[in-house]
## 1
Amino acid sequence: MGVRSFTLFGGFMRLQCVVILAGLLLVVEPLSAQPDSAVYGADYTIVSGTLNGAINASSCGTSRAPSWCSGSDVGAWINAAAGYSKAKGGNCQIHVTSAGIMSTAPQIPLGCTLDVFAPLALNVTWPLTHHGVVIDLHGNPVTGNTGPAPAIDIGKASANLVKRSGRASSAGTAVTYAGDVAGSGQDFTGLVPGSAFCLGASCSTIGSVNSNTSITLASSMGAQRNANFTAYSGSAPATVNTDATGKTLTWASGPAFDLDKGDQIVVNGLAANVIAVSSSTVTVGNSVCTSCSSVPYVGIIFPNNISANATPQPVTIKNLVLKKGTSAGDAIRATGIAGLQLEFPHFIGAWGALYDSRGSITANIFGLSSTNQVSGIVMDGFNGAGFVSGSNANHFYGVSMTQSTTASGIAIYTPKGSKSGYNFFGNVELEGNANDAVIADWGQGKDRYEMSDYEQNGTATGGYEILLESNYNKISGPAQMQTYHPYLIYLATGTLGNVIEDLQISASKAGAVGIHTGFAASARIINNTFLAGTMTLPKSPTGKVVVIDTDGNYTGNAFNAIGGISVGGNAVPTKAGTPAANRGVCWKTPGTLGYCSTGLDPNGACICN
């Protein structure tokens, strides 16, 4: 018989004191000791020997799992822990302390914090549809195998509204499909119990779907014949309690609220607009049910309804290491949300895109880094459910993309027609990537790129490395910009107001052009140093081609003996001399360059075109 008893669970050690009184051996449990359910995580989680008030989802994988556990994988355990936390009330804090597989998509309720202290395998898309969620991976790797879907899907994209419309007849709660409207051909396919259903001027929720042409409602629609119906598939069945005004709804059971300001909610058959959401309550614009308990509701989610969110609660992801598995789509996709926070995400492997922004705004992304990507940051737009948005006013503080092996990828890409712009990319390092098109901006413009290190990108097969097809963008240093392609920075024909400044340009490809302004383009090119390569200013019959600086002089840009300027394809010597016809730069109008179509006269003048 020993004199000490140790029990070790997840790094926590329970010590039982041994007391000997008059030959009698007593084992005394310390006052601070917790029951086994607490040690295994029913009320506490054990991290590095410290007790705290989080729920340990990993306790579900032990031989003495708490009663609230369900499912057989980490994703299901997280969901069970979230449900248990909701039932307890108070702060929602979930920990994962053991490695495992996530085959069930974790659903993190609004206002919850998830801390992961062990590696995970993600075999399903991880949707983050709630705001006010904080996830800290603490640098533990997550391996995603979800292609072609994104590994992490942020926003309402995975819960897009399914809308059906047509004609139907009702007899009380029984509703029968009666035909389409204007050739829509839409019956009850895709609707689920809990979906919102409106017939004529009345709305209810669906109790059961009997077939594609027959449903049963939660409340009576009376007797209607061939009336127009509109049905929305929203969140799953759940219940709420209401206050005396019928305008404050408190979550009672089922999935947590997945609604934003501007969405709608149907309670006991009455619809209302959502005007405010917190972690457990929804405020609506009109009374739906006064002093009601556990009444059914369905939320009608209008995807990407970010315009209505004056003070959005952000989704925050910290210290993520996301590794590509055997197949992968995008690493992270953010669709139509506001206020996303990504702190120090690192991506490993050839993802379709590291971060694919589809109409999201005001994201703050700190320290994004990657190796071996296909494409990096994609600033796209979104057009769905009547809502149109570009990816605007997002900020990236510290971008490092290296070692991509894919020539067809683009490190930073704003697609044509996306209406995206006003984004900031600071402290950008692009080095050792095979991407032939490194930055391509076709969007709304007014983006800023502050380059810190740029070299050895592309395969030198032709074309440009950086293309500005939009207006009023700015590319600035202090980076040394090295190119292996015919063009480093290409300002497309007709573009306006772009600024290129404070760069050191070194062309490693013979005859390469550091900065090229297309036909009738207007730009400010100032304070750059051309260590090698030329700057080309094509002929333009429209007048202004390139504004050198606000003082109308060219002293801001420096060329060495192997660099120079080309106007209309004719090189201009940078050393002293008297240019012949078509080989001289002249001032066409104040602040506008032209070229000398004749040789210089004795006074140094020429015919300036």
## 2
Amino acid sequence: MPACHWHKLLLVVALLGAAQLLEAGERDALRERLGAAERLVVGGSELYAAGTLGPFYAGRDYEPLWFRHGAPTRMLLTLPDAIRAAAAEGLVPDHYHLRALERGLALWRRGDRSRQARAELELLASDAFLTLAGHYAHGKVDPAEINRSWTLRRPDVALESLLEALARGAYADPGEALAKQLPDHVDYARLRERLALYRRLERDWRFAPLADGEPLRQGSHDGRVAALAARLEQLGDLEAHRVDRAHFDPALDLAVRRFQQRHGLAADGVVGPLTLAALNLAIEERIDRVRVNLERWRWLPDDLGAEHILVNIAGFYMVLVSDDVEVMRQRVVVGLPYRRTPVFSDRMTYLVLNPSWEVPPGIARREHLPKIRRDPGYLERMGFTLLENWGENERVIDPERVDWAAHANGRMPYRLRQRPGPDNAMGQVKFMFPNRHNVYLHDTPSRGLFARNARAASAGCIRLEKPLALAEWVLGGPRRDTAMTGDEIAQILEGGEETRVNLPRPVRIHLMYWTAWVERDGRTHYRDDIYERDGPLLEALDAGRHR
């Protein structure tokens, strides 16, 4: 063999040997760092996914993922951009080791290529990827910290398997792998687009508060009208075609009504104190409102059900969706701020026509006992039966034989059951999805509540504006093998007897809490945070800690 070939062969062998030594050194460095302590701090940053990193690297004999032959891979070089993209999802990129990664890569380019430096970058990259993937898949904040009644969780994502898939080239880059973990809901995508729009407004527009003064309405001539029109143009409620900027014309009236409707206000076209306050909501506050509601979407499973009922507690509405088509929408009344409707998902399995009402003990004690003590005839007039014990031991108590004065301390040793009838708090129908909260949907005799814009007025259950329309759908909709007609329902109601009717097919139901959402017409809606949950959630999103 010619001497030059021998030299080339020896060079290749030498390079291979050096590479093997280099990789062996990198494996040793990773093994040492991962075995050093349960709480790992790398480059001044705590590793949040240490419990996953150890088994992952042990399973691949501590072979690096983000380095090859001592040099950063393209995946590592593109990872910072993928982390920066978290801002578009309402998250904070700096919570995912962004600065430490950028600093480490800059030092590597300047020549700090020690085994220790490479091991730190390797672990920071894996931890950042895993943590962000988990937050995309399940949310950054544990929902139970904000709302103890939360019981719904998205399916777990095997994050270690996600790293393995990235290692074997299943994704083009980390950004693609991370994006796959985000909610696959068009409503989430619309809300994310709105976040991008508001951030452009924050950067490019001056968002000064509109001045106080007398209410503005159609026909007004006022210097503030021009500022009002500019604000409504910024927010997309008014097209920029006006000539007389000081005149409150019909086009501006329509824009104000549209804005009011989006914010849950009386759509009367008058810019009074409430409308002015909504118009002066700072763009930063709108951004934060969108961010917390993006997080709420990340808590949900991708599949809400081909047919499902969704109640937005903060929005005071219910929608019925079938095959991604909204087939019904109703106003609802939800729990008072001190009797909050819980947030959870379940399956509606039956309904009750002409329901009786078993009064919860707390309501019986707080609301009914004082009325009974003042007027013993109240029970008969309102259709209540006084009961003692349960099941086979249940017996009816004559209220006239009870010494109500002995219960002045508020103690209520009896049960109250309200018979079916026009005064029954459940109305003509209640929809049952048995749950630990004892919450359900039902009719109500208090129809005037639906005329209000803010409808937090119940003891926790959800009152429906058009319950019989929902009953006809769940009993006789297109997905039912057997159907009960509206006439059959009406016949049972006319009979007045309490009747349980099992649904031919269970319907998934989701009780949610959204203070900002985008409707299918592309318009963003905002509602008051009636249960004061946005603030704690925003604080948790902005905190550096992780669940």
## 3
Amino acid sequence: MKPYVVVESSFRAFLTPGELQWIKLYWDLGIDFAVGGLGANRSSLVVMTPLREPQSPTRTAFTAYVVDGKESNEWPSDSIAGALSSYPEFGLSERADSPGSPPQRDFVTLRGMGAVGVGARVLLDGVPFNDPFGGWVPWAEVPRDGLARVEVVPGGGATAWGQGALGGVVQFFTLPPSGELVLKPGSLTENGPLDPALTKQIVVGTGQVTAEAGSFGTREVEFFASQPTSEGVLQVLGNTYSTDGYPLVSPQQRGPIDDAAGNRHEWLEARWRQLVGKKIVLTVTVRGSEETHGEGTPYQQGSSSGRFASVALASHPSADFTWNGVVYVQDGQSSDTFSSVNAARTAETPVMKQFAEPETSFGASWSGAWREAGGSSTSAGADYHYVRGDAREDFAFDDGAFARGLVAGGEQGDFGAFVLRDQGLAWGLRAVFGARLDAWDEAGGHQRETDLISGGLPDSVRFATQSGTEFSPTIGLVWRPAEDLRMHVNGQQAFSRPTLGELYQPYGQDAIVTEANPRLGTERNTSVEAGAEYTFHFGADQSKKSPNTYYRSPIFASGKLVVAATVFSNDLRDAIGNLNLAPGTGGYPVFGALPAGYVAQQLINLDRSRIQGATGSVQWSPNSAFSTYVFVVFNDATIDHVGIAPGLAGKQVAGVSRQSYAVAARWRASEKLTIRASMRALGPKFVDDENTLRLGEAVIADVGAYYSVSKHAELFLAVDNFANDRIDTSRSANGVFYIGSPRLAHGGLRLSW
């Protein structure tokens, strides 16, 4: 029996075209779905990221993890980044999410790609989410309570999304501005008395608010609310967070200068959606954010702010064609300070003051999908992105003042167009193939130094305009010879241009100072993967229909075991790495003389390197109350050849562990109580490509309990790093270890309506 589909024109304004596409897809596939206050896209039964159109995960030729927004709220971790880290193929450059971690250090790594440089494209509702200047990810601005779903596609999506998708794509979808369709007693006449025997459909507002507190003075309030009107829907989302933090240096090495690294941020977003005519939905979004953070000593502080606006148009789905487009603009500002600390850790000396980093970017994209009766489809589109920014810094501190200033930056633009075909073949076989062509250019590159004492200009360099084109093809096959067996193989080529920060902005971190490199070349990756997945069922199938609602929950087996394995290989050309610099008679090029024990690096292109390995997982659900999984990743990341530094050949790529493991379990102890636990084991890795700074193993265990007080209220309590294990996140050349969060207990109340 087909599920109920809402077709009332008055309600279509409250569902995004993407949701309506999914509803149409569910209808075509005979899949049950839910339409309610949190939207149809709560389901994890489709994935959009690889092709920019909805697919069933069982029909995609790429590895894809789809995390339901409600499920992400039940992970014990204090952040969405920590929740995603439960999948070992997903990683963070800081190794572990931490309350005091500055956002400028938060990069995504997928299968070890992006440990240095930007290895993954991160999107929020189809718009680039990486910082335009530096490439880092502003995790604090991801609306965890207002999150509908997350899709992680390691090793795929480059043809659909282009520049930056070197190691894959991560995409967040927020809950759409929507009301909830409910039945209420009606009347025979407009002003007549209510008659319980009659019902009428109305749309009411929805929302949720979460208040949370925890260790280290952690406090957070997050909310979202949608209110339907006669013209459309207004949605408001927001978050305010603060923590006193903890000292970043390991306890055995701390000195009087080390203090807690606090962090405070807030953001507010408003969205308006309405029908334009009868077949187009307009969505307008504006967002603003502010953030401040400490980095473990009195001098080292930072802040950032940003503003964002977008206008999106999308069609209602038809039997054969749907489309969507968006135009967006954003600007931002950030500042940071960096110091050197003496061996006794009793005093610090300023090294650099980045007092401003203004950036502006804008872009647009359009994509359409043509669907055929047999299930085959073609998607095509184009997008453009432009960014301009500067890093403005003072350095060379001497005799109580900075002696030199630096202004460095430029502008980048990229235009790309793609076409992808998803073709059904015989015998349960499907093929996907397509190509993308990007044209990029960089202009206005400059580094201008100033003598702050005399006011002179001792050095000024302008870099020549650069441009180029990149071809990003993909091909894949997925075969389902039986309902419970899926096998897939794919290959793609991806590219990533260095960010403006990598080209022009020197920076410091943990007694390691890094010089930018205006001559960095384009990173390219040719990747292949092959995998298989089999589902064993045992017990009788069950289904559940909720009374007085327009949905049935998905049909599920009372017991199942899913076994999966994947092998992958990445052949990287000119991946961004780092090389230790030997000081000359005048010191380092930008920072000048450095204290003993400090190391200066420069970003370079590694001519050729390889990242290859395998993943395996087992998911077991003996019944609807309990489920668990075990996930393992083996990764061999090796530098093959570097012409300017032959000694790097054979070294392990910085930031990549050879093996990682994860175990997680969910137990619904009663109708009201749910308990979740997870454990991640991270293997050793090196901080630098020369393999001189090694970090040992780390084990992170989290546990949480969630108690439903009523239909609209939930209490929760969670503990991150339950065993209080020491998590080394970085290491300086003078032997100082920097650590992730100690045990963090946090809990609160979640209310919904």
